[in-house]
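I'll show a sample.
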Amino acid sequence: MRHALFLGTIAAGALVAGIASADTLSDVKARGELNCGVNIGLVGFAAPDANGNWSGFDIAVCKAVAAAVLGDASKVKYVPTSGQTRFTALSSGEVDLLARNSTWSFSRDTDLKLDFVAVNYYDGQGFMVRKDLGVTSAKELDGATVCIQTGTTTELNLADYFKANNMTYQPVAIDTNAEGEQQYLAGACDAYTTDASGLAATRAAFADPSNHIILPEIISKEPLAIAVRHGDNNWADIVRWTFYALVAAEEYGVTSANIEELAKSSQNPEVQRLLGTTDDLGKMIGLDKDWSKRAISASGNYGEIFAATIGEQTPIGLARGLNAQWTQGGLMYAPPFR
């Protein structure tokens, strides 16, 4: 047993070493395509249309990275992943990054050996019920049946919340949001619980969204973040700073419409560095000087992406809230480009 344990330790060490020496950037360039792990289907965040064309808030992250690295936002293979398969898909190398409504937590960061490079949506867990249930607060759900996705942080949060409030519930396990929607609409559960943004996206797809209400309680912190494999620091830097380029662009008023003009005329040193007019930040991460300009041009800056996919003027109808720029009272804050 001792000998076997020793060999197992060596094997584990070799695996970690292999991951640590990985060069995802070279792999993606050689393949000519970015493999991006996304939701199986959540309107507003990631969903294919009838022709198989993907769109959504998380899809824009994939496009931005592809544009930065490959020079073409369309060079993405979207890999649908469930709550149970998403991290395995990333760890195994099936996908190069995960942009899929995934909460950044201690155990996922450390035990699963993932690197969460940036939070792209600050969220919290909520509850949705049918209006005719007559419930106006989550604290009125004692004894309720609750649809919940397995393999998610929502399972523990749900148990903690009901225990803290001396309530009981009957879980109805589901694997995907589509199954949850089906079960909830069929009356298999009194309430559906997941991230509040996911509830808004799910409700928007209903034939009668006005007959369903999202209860006011938010019972957890759910920083939904972009993830890469542990051990490839340069790839993590590329994905991290590509996302922050979108955030910084909004802060400095760089949009998909004016980006070419500002690249030539802006006198703001931060904008000049961001757009590659001065300095060559791309060289530091193995990219050219126009990488961030291409990333921003792919789908627009963070604010443009938010407004077009999940914002208040879309069927999802989400307000910026915590996801507003730090200058507007929110938490979106890009480190300096210098």
User: Anything to note?
Assistant: Residues 67 and 73 are 4 Å apart (CA to CA). The mean pLDDT is 92. Residues 2-20 form the longest helix (19 residues). The first strand starts at residue 34 and ends at 39.
